[in-house]
Specification:
The chain has one domain: Collagenase (Catalytic Domain) (3-Layer(aba) Sandwich), CATH 3.40.390. Helices cover 27% and strands 12% of the residues. The chain contains seven helices and six strands. It has helices at 12-17, 42-46, 68-81, 105-115, 156-161, 172-187, 240-251; strands at 53-60, 88-94, 121-122, 125-132, 144-146, 151-154. Strands 1, 2, 3, 4, 5 and 6 form a six-stranded mixed sheet that branches. The two termini are 26 Å apart.
Length: 263
C-alpha cells in the first residue's frame, strides 16, 4: 500500500501550540481489568489462530449514524492488516445511550459495555465497538477516544465543527473517515501502546501517536484544528512504519504486552 505525499500543514505554528488533549480519556492506559487497554486485543485481530472472523459493532444515537464512506473505509483498513478468513462484518444499531451532558472516558466504557451485543471474545469471533453519541466529550477539542481493548467513541458534533472554513475543506465526512480509522488504529496498539517500535516514529510530545503527517496515526488527526488543513488530503492509511510494527508484532519479532489473548 502506497504512502501519500505529505499534506500541507496550514497554520502549523498554531497547531503546534495547542495542548495535547489525547485520544485516551482520563488514565485509561492504566486500566488493566478484563476490559483491557487500547491494544489489548491487537494479536487477536492480527492473527487467525483463534479469531477467524470479526464484527465491528457501531452503536449510534438517532441522527448520528456514521457516514457510509467511514464504515466502508474502516472495514477496508482492518481487512488490510487483520487476518480474518471468515470475514469482517459491520453491525449498525440505532441506540439510546440515555446519557445527558458531555462524556468522559468512564462514560464511554460504561455505556459501551452496556450496549455491546456480544463480549469482545466470543467463540471464534472478535467484536470491536464504536459508539457515536449525540453529545460531545468533556474536552471539546477531542473528536474521538479509545478507552479499552475493544471500545472507541466518535463525537460527530465535534467532527462537524472541525470542518474547514474555506469551501468546507476538509469536509466533515473526510474528517470522520480519518478519525474513525485513527481510533481503531489505537485498538491495534498504534503507536507504541503495547509494544516498542524499532523505528522512532512516535511523536515525543504526543505519546501514542505518529510524527508522520502521512500516517492516519498522526497526532493532529484527533483535533478540531484539522479545520486548518485547507489543501491536500487528510491521511486515512497506516504508513509503512505502522504496517511494519503490526507485522512485527504478529511475527513475534516485536514483543507485545498487556494482551487479553495470546496465540
Amino acid at each position: 500500500m502506497g504512502v501519500r505525499k505529505s499534506i500541507p500543514l496550514m497554520l502549523a505554528l498554531l497547531m503546534m501550540t495547542m495542548s495535547f488533549a489525547g485520544c485516551f480519556g482520563g488514565n485509561v492506559l492504566a486500566v488493566k481489568d478484563n476490559r483491557g487497554i487500547p491494544g489489548g486485543l491487537t494479536l487477536a485481530c492480527l492473527s487467525a489462530d483463534k479469531y477467524t472472523s470479526m464484527v465491528v459493532e457501531i452503536d449510534y444515537e438517532s441522527g448520528y449514524m456514521p457516514e457510509q464512506s467511514s464504515v466502508d473505509l474502516l472495514k477496508t483498513r482492518l481487512g488490510e492488516v487483520c487476518d480474518k478468513p471468515g470475514g469482517i462484518n459491520v453491525l449498525l444499531t440505532e441506540t439510546n445511550f440515555e446519557h445527558s451532558g458531555s462524556w468522559t472516558a468512564d462514560d464511554v466504557r460504561e455505556k459501551g459495555w452496556m450496549h455491546k451485543s456480544n463480549q469482545p471474545q466470543t467463540g471464534s469471533t472478535l467484536y470491536w465497538q464504536a459508539i457515536f453519541p449525540s453529545t460531545g466529550y468533556e474536552n471539546n477539542d477531542v473528536l474521538g477516544v479509545a478507552v479499552d481493548a475493544s471500545t472507541v467513541a466518535i463525537f460527530k458534533d465535534a467532527v462537524e465543527e472541525a470542518e474547514g472554513p474555506f469551501f468546507s475543506r476538509p469536509s466533515a465526512e473526510e474528517i470522520e473517515n480519518s478519525v474513525l480509522v485513527h481510533e481503531f488504529g489505537h485498538l491495534l496498539g498504534l503507536v507504541n501502546l503495547v509494544y516498542k517500535s524499532p523505528v522512532d516514529h512516535e511523536d515525543k510530545d504526543h505519546p501514542g501517536h505518529s510524527n508522520n503527517e502521512d500516517s492516519v496515526m498522526y497526532w493532529a488527526i484527533e483535533s478540531v484544528n484539522l479545520r486548518n488543513f485547507i489543501t491536500g488530503e487528510l491521511p486515512d492509511e497506516f504508513d509503512n512504519d505502522d504496517l511494519n510494527d503490526l507485522s512485527g508484532m504478529l511475527s513475534g519479532e516485536i514483543p507485545v504486552t498487556d494482551q487479553l489473548w495470546l496465540p
